[in-house]
Amino acid sequence: MRVVVTTEYRYAMTPDGRVWTTHAHGYDVWRRYLTAFDEVRVVARVAAAPQVPKTALRVDGPGVTVHPVPHYVGPQQYLRQRVPIGRAMATAAGRDDAVILRVPSALGSLLAGVRRRHGLPYALEVVGDPYDVLAPGVVRHPLRPLLRQRFATRLRRECGSAVAVSYVTADYLQARYPAAPHAPTANVSSIDLPPEAFAPGPRVVRANSKRGHTLISIGTLDQLYKGVDTLVEAVAVLVSSGVDVRLVHAGDGRFAGHLKGLAEARGVADRVTFAGWVAPGAPLRARLDAADLAVMPSRTEGLPRALIEAMARALPAIGTAVGGIPELLSREDLVRPDDPDALAGAIAGMLADPDRMTVASARNLARARHYSRDFLEPRRHAFYQSVREATDRR
């Protein structure tokens, strides 16, 4: 049986027909489905590229193909391309295919509609919350309140109609978007940390007045939902109060220029480094190992991969109390979003207490092990098998 999986990641296709990504969802992610299915078809936006993008990962490979959807960015480009997009989605999956939609997703919702119209089953992997993604301060759009309600209602309907649902959180998304009473459900993160992702042991942090502290944050800058602007403001508060900190942000996107301008306006441009996209694996681990504290100032999250990767390197962390972050960090390490003063206070409090940082390092490393490959693979396979069986029954 073939499984068709939608994703919101955007890919590039070189003239030889191979497909590439500059994000973490390459071939190693999609081949996981081969434990229960004979073939995987990934449905994604694909743009033509004259050559392999720098630091790109291959997407397609043995058992994994890509069904290209016309490339677009944002609602205006989507509207201009809606007819060819609709045609591509209508042919994305056959009647006998299993279908797993990674939602919230425009492509996922389109394919869910196609399946419902033909009385065909689909399953879901719920990886985020549209209600939080469209919260005030996250997305700037005049129709944001209307879209917020519409997309949240749509996701609840999709979960209620799915033959099986997997959630990346333990409780948070399940409460907002429940599955049908008899549908199999699972709590399985899409994170897949190999043994080398983990530090050999916790950090022992000692007071050191001879150098400052390095903060690290990770995430896309295509939208402001990662809260990096709040973190830049917090760095300015810390520096003005005499705390010697520097921030390194790994990630790129269309708001990078805006955030660099904010750092200049607040007088901390020399203390904030925008490192751009950092390749997963050893390059990212090197960045994490060089830092003293991870900061996840998000306005919305599902279950943040970047935070778990930082915790796997035994980094103490401060995060906001949104989405699945409270399932990862202890209460004393959480602050409310959109509050630079509170975030600065939490960072300063952690950095000033080496014993607390040592305890947080050990605790975070232990929690990150729940997202190791060995821990998650059996649960992930069980979910895929339940989707296959539910598809056979329907």
Element layout with pairings:
Blueprint: E1 2-13, E2 19-21, H1 27-30, E3 39-48, E4 57-58, E5 64-70, H2 74-80, H3 82-90, E6 98-103, H4 106-117, E7 123-126, H5 130-133, H6 144-161, E8 165-167, H7 172-176, E9 185-187, E10 213-218, H8 228-240, E11 245-250, H9 256-265, E12 272-276, H10 282-289, E13 293-296, H11 305-312, E14 317-320, E15 334-335, H12 340-351, H13 354-368, H14 373-393
Parallel strand pairs: 1-3, 1-6, 3-5, 6-7, 7-8, 8-9, 10-11, 10-13, 11-12, 13-14, 14-15
Antiparallel strand pairs: 1-2, 2-4
Descriptive account of the structure:
By secondary structure, this protein is an alpha/beta fold. It folds into two domains: 2-191 and 372-393, 3-Layer(aba) Sandwich (Rossmann fold), CATH 3.40.50.2000; 195-371, Rossmann fold. The protein has 14 helices and 15 strands. It has helices at 27-30, 74-80, 82-90, 106-117, 130-133, 144-161, 172-176, 228-240, 256-265, 282-289, 305-312, 340-351, 354-368, 373-393, and strands at residues 2-13, 19-21, 39-48, 57-58, 64-70, 98-103, 123-126, 165-167, 185-187, 213-218, 245-250, 272-276, 293-296, 317-320, 334-335. The strands form two sheets. Strands 1, 2, 3, 4, 5, 6, 7, 8 and 9 form a nine-stranded mixed beta sheet that branches. It has a six-stranded parallel beta sheet with strand order 12-11-10-13-14-15, sandwiched between helices. The longest helix is centred in the last third of the chain and has 21 residues, at 373-393. The model has no long low-confidence stretch (mean pLDDT 93).
